[in-house]
Design a protein that fits this description.
Helices cover 55% and strands 9% of the residues. The protein is α/β, with parallel strands linked by helices and 366 residues long. It is globular and about 75 Å long.
């Protein structure tokens, strides 16, 4: 068994993906014979999901760079079989994402039947609503690496280089089993009728459109933007699937709360009243905001050496998130916790003050 592990390490350092696969298969067989079928299945699942990508691993690791800054203009995310990308969406949108994934998975069969389906998806919506998460989820579901365009490096001070960088990105992703992801798409896809844009930038957009046209016929392209109103009108026609991602509704917020706390004991996930209250308080918050607030509450729980994430922990973090530091007063926090059903004795314990002081704070507010 140790021999196989050493051979896998050696082959990996030599970038010999075929040997990595063969020795990993041998290791899985030995583990299965020794009774460790769980680890054996995990190894087999990983190597089987990576068959399509191992051939091009060397190519994916050699990323293109901007001529001026020498910065890499793409990042490559490799999905793994044990990736668990949390995604909570309305049913209709979830179905559209599933349909897109199915088209990607069956593109060979579709092509054999003479059905040409451009695999292009445009996601738009407010920041933090999960557009990047959806792209990573599609990557994980299809087993295809996600090639992420870095617009901070693409947009060069030498405008001529920007068009060249766009061409490099599409050339890099072309004819590889991967997904090209253009995040913050509006950075290079602004409307050409914008009077403030220079002629050279308009030529950059023309170049982008040409690259999309030649690329999307046989490859997988995902773009995302927080500002759909800025996009050139011609951009929309280049995507056969367009999905707007909005803020989560209360039922989706409940699912997000449970997803983000599934590794913690809580006093609210089995309490419908508390969970419903949190869902209402999180309305108008993006999934990213909800995750940040809950993670802060989890951190506070760990630091204070407590085993259970409490309802009031989340409320405190939500209050601090909603209010700038200049508005953070103990009186306002006490009032907020009291209004949302936290017992005065619990508030006193959390604030590290006496129950009498808590009552005095609340009497002043009334």
């Amino acid at each position: 068994m140790y021999t196989e592990i050493l051979r896998i390490v050696e082959s990996g350092l030599l970038k010999d993906t075929k040997k990595v696969y063969n020795y990993a298969k041998l290791l899985a067989d030995k583990l299965d014979k020794d009774g460790n079928d769980r680890m054996s299945k995990m190894i087999l699942k990983v190597i089987d999901s990576k068959k399509a990508t191992t051939v091009t691993m060397d190519e994916l690791l050699t990323t293109p760079v901007d001529q001026e800054s020498r910065l890499s203009i793409v990042d490559v995310n490799i999905p793994y079989a044990n990736d668990d990308i949390p995604i909570v969406l309305p049913k209709l949108i979830d179905n559209k994402i599933a349909d897109f994934i199915n088209v990607v998975k069956h593109q060979s069969q579709l092509a054999q039947k003479g059905v040409e389906m451009p695999n292009s998806l445009l996601l738009y919506g407010n920041p933090g609503c999960g557009k990047t998460t959806i792209a990573k989820y599609i990557s994980e579901q299809t087993g295809l690496p996600l090639v992420i365009a870095r617009f901070d490096a693409i947009v060069s001070s030498l405008l001529g280089n920007t068009a060249k960088n766009i061409r490099k990105i599409f050339d890099f992703a072309d004819n590889k089993p991967c997904i090209l992801f253009l995040d913050e798409f509006d950075a290079i896809a602004k409307a050409r009728d914008d009077q403030y844009e220079l002629g050279e930038l308009k030529r950059v957009i023309n170049s982008l459109l040409q690259n999309i046209d030649s690329f999307a016929k046989q490859n997988i392209l995902i773009a995302a933007t927080n500002h759909p109103e800025l996009l050139d009108k011609a951009i929309w026609r280049r995507f056969n699937t367009v999905i707007g991602i909005g803020l989560p509704r209360e039922d989706e917020i409940v699912k997000l709360i449970k997803t983000f706390t599934n590794d913690f004991d809580t006093d609210f996930n089995t309490d419908d009243k508390k969970l419903d209250k949190l869902a209402k308080l999180f309305v108008e918050k993006s999934p990213s905001d909800i995750k940040t607030i809950i993670n802060n509450a989890k951190a506070r729980t760990i630091i204070n050496d407590r085993n259970t994430l409490q309802y009031e922990d989340v409320l405190i973090e939500l209050f601090e998130f909603n209010n700038h530091s200049i508005n953070l007063t103990i009186e306002k926090l006490v009032e907020y916790l009291n209004e949302n059903g936290v017992a005065q004795s619990v508030i006193a314990e959390r604030m590290n003050v006496s129950l009498r002081q808590i009552r005095n704070y609340l009497n002043k507010q009334s």
